[in-house]
Amino acid sequence: MQTAAGLTTTQAPFIEQAQARGEKFIRQPYELYSEENQETWRALYRRMLPRWEKYANEKFLEGVSNLALDPNAVPRLDDINKFLEPLSGFKAKAVSGYIPAYLFFDCLRTREFPTTITIRDGRTLDYLPEPDIFHDVAGHVPMHTDRQFSDVLVRFGEAARSAAMHAQEITDREERLRTVESIIKGMARFFWFTVEFGLMNRPEGGYCVYGSGLLSSFGEIEHCIESPEVQRFPFQLEWVVNQYFEIDHYQPLLFIVDSFEHLFAEVGRLEEWILAGKLSNLSGGEPAVNETDLQSFLEAVS
Which of 15, 35, 263, 277 lies at 20 to 30 Å from 23 by C-alpha? Predict the structure, then answer.
């Protein structure tokens, strides 16, 4: 029998059982959300809304409206997809937890977004070291309603496929391993500094937020725009792919794109650089590349 933990992150028997069976893609057992889970969603949404209205990219705000997100209840992914798919072809796809890097990117290529269904403990609203449904649905998915941004994600998935195919052409095993590890590191950095923590110039001046890590953080969404401690630079691909990041504190360095057209073009450049070998020997440091992510790329294309 399900415990009172409901679908709380790290305390969900349903998820533990799915993981034990090796199930990566699952259903959303909506009946298991506890009242505490629902109250956590309400608290997160209630305090984020004014900050979205002040700092978020206008396409994000349009997405919140287009998805008809309910401020009072954890969203049902089936309902989200009824609004989302006609707009961009994307759909949210429930997962039991961690998805290996290549599989994650390949889901984006086919317009599927791996979506966590658990929600953080209501006693720790401010920081969570892993995704939850508020981060994924309220932080990511509104941006997926925009066709230009969703095309960026698809393009990123295509770049990952090109990377995996490129790796197969390297005959020396040690060189192939080193190259793939470096490419994954570069792609992770690019994704981090754009899709997760990206800023965009406003036409009238100043910046707005489109990165989901910022859009789902009550404290950092304001900090990233207002704080003099944050370094903000125009997006430069050679900087981004060589810049390490750490996940356990506010980001001290962020990059700014001009538009989603600009971002789409930079993903195209990223793929060109992968194929030209420019991501094969990047600077070290975070993020670490684990064996599962490495193998997911090495085994992706037979």
Answer: 35
